[in-house]
Amino acid sequence: MQDRIVRATAANGGIRLVAVLTTESSLEAKKRHGLSYLTTCILGRAFSASLLLASSMKIMHGRVTLRVRSDGPLKGLLVDAGRDGQVRGYVGNPNLELDLVKKGNNKYSFDFTKALGRGYLNVIRDSGFGEPFTSTVELVNGNIAEDLASYLYHSEQTPSAVFIGEKIQNKSVICSGGLLAQVLPKKDTDPLLISLLEERCKEINSFSEDLFKSKDNLLSLIRNIFPDIDDKSISEKARSQEVSFRCKCSKQRSLNAMKMLDKSELEDILKKDGKAELVCEFCKNKYLINYEEIKSMIENQS
Q1: Which of 65, 67, 39, 42 is nearest to 164 (CA)?
Q2: What is the pLDDT at residue 233?
Q3: DSSP letters of 253-277?
Q4: 118 and 148 together in one domain
Q5: Do 184 and 104 share a structural domain?
Q6: pLDDT digits 0-9 by tens, 32-72
Q7: In degrees rounded to 5, what are phi and psi of residue 121?
Q8: How far apart are CA 190 and CA 29, in angstroms?
Q9: Of the candidates 51, 173, 19, which has an alpha carbon nearest to the alpha carbon of residue 110?
Q10: How many Cβ atoms from other residues are within 10 Å of residue 80's Cβ?
Q11: Do residues 230 and 271 share a domain?
Q12: Which domain holds residue 255?
C-alpha cells in the first residue's frame, strides 16, 4: 500500500493527531543504500519522525531536516522531509548490524541505543522565508521516538507523545510508521487535556503491534487510541496525503556542483580521468559529467 500521512484532532480541537506510514519509503531506502535490517529500521524511524514534524508546517514547500551526530557505530544519519510528503535520507554506516537485546517481556529488539551511541539530535525547520529555525537536543536513547519527544518538549515546550515503530516478518520490513499526539498551542496549559493525552497514551502497550494490526489504515489506528476523534464527517481522503521516497537531485544540480570547483581542480579531473561521476548521498543516483561538459566549465572560468 502507498505510504500516507493522516491528520485529525480530538477533544474538540484541543489535541492534534498525526499518523504516518513509511513502509514503502523505508524499503526503497533499503534497496538504494543497501541497508541492513537494523539500519533500515533506524532510517525508517527517522523518516517517520521528520514527516511528523513537517506535517505541522503551514506551507507545502516547507521542509524539515533531521540530523543525528553521535559516537555510535551508525556514524550518524541525515533525513530531509517536506510538508509535501516527500522524504529522503541516509545513514553513515548502512551495513551495520548488532546483536538483538532481550526486553522485559521476553522478546528481542534492535539495539538502537548502542547503534546511535551518545550525541545530539539537530532539527532544522525551513519555511522558505528568512533564516531556518534550528534546535539541538541531546539524544535520550536513540530509538528516535523518545528523542523526538525530548526535542518537542525542550525546543517547542509542547506537551507531546510520540510513537514510532516497525515490524519485521519473514526477513522483511512489513510495516513502519509513527504517531504524534500534541496538545495544541493556547490549550497546552489545560490540565484536563494533558491528563487526557497521558491516559490515552498509557493504553498503548506496543505501537508496532498496533500499527501492524491496523493493516495500513491510519485513521483506524488513530481511532483505536482516541475514539472521540473530531471531524468524523471529513473523509480520510480529505485529511490524508501520499508519502514517498523522492530525491531532488538531477544532472543539472550535479553540473552546478562541479562548477563550484576551481579551474585547476577541473583541469586535473580532465587530465586524469577525462570525466567525472557524481553520486547523490541521499538516493545513490549517479550522474556522469563528460569531457565536453568539463571542458566548457573550464572555458567559462577563463
Answers
A1: 42
A2: 45
A3: HHHHHHTTS-HHHHHHHHHHTSSEE
A4: yes
A5: yes
A6: 999 999 999 999 999 999 999 999 888 888 899 999 999 99
A7: -105, 120
A8: 41
A9: 173
A10: 21
A11: no
A12: 251-301
User: Which residue's C-alpha cell is 550518524?
Assistant: 76
Beta-strand ranges (E) seen in the chain are 4-10, 15-21, 63-70, 77-82, 86-91, 101-102, 108-109, 119-126, 133-138, 160-169, 172-183, 240-242, 244-245, 276-279, 286-289
Mean pLDDT value across the chain: 90
Residue listed under C-alpha cell 567559462: 300
Same domain, yes or no, for 218 and 179? yes
pLDDT tens digit sequence for 116-173:
999 999 999 998 788 899 999 999 989 999 999 999 988 878 888 999 999 988 778 9
278-298: buried (b, 16+ CB within 10 Å) or exposed (e) per residue? Answer: bebebbbeebebeeebbeebb
Backbone φ and ψ of 244, nearest 5°:
-155, 150
Shared-domain flag, residues 285 and 142:
no
Q: Are residues 32 and 97 in the same domain?
A: yes
3-class SS of residue 68: strand
Q: Which amino acid is at 117?
A: G
Mark whether 52 and 83 lie in a shared domain: yes
Query: For the chain, how many structural domains are there in total?
Result: 2
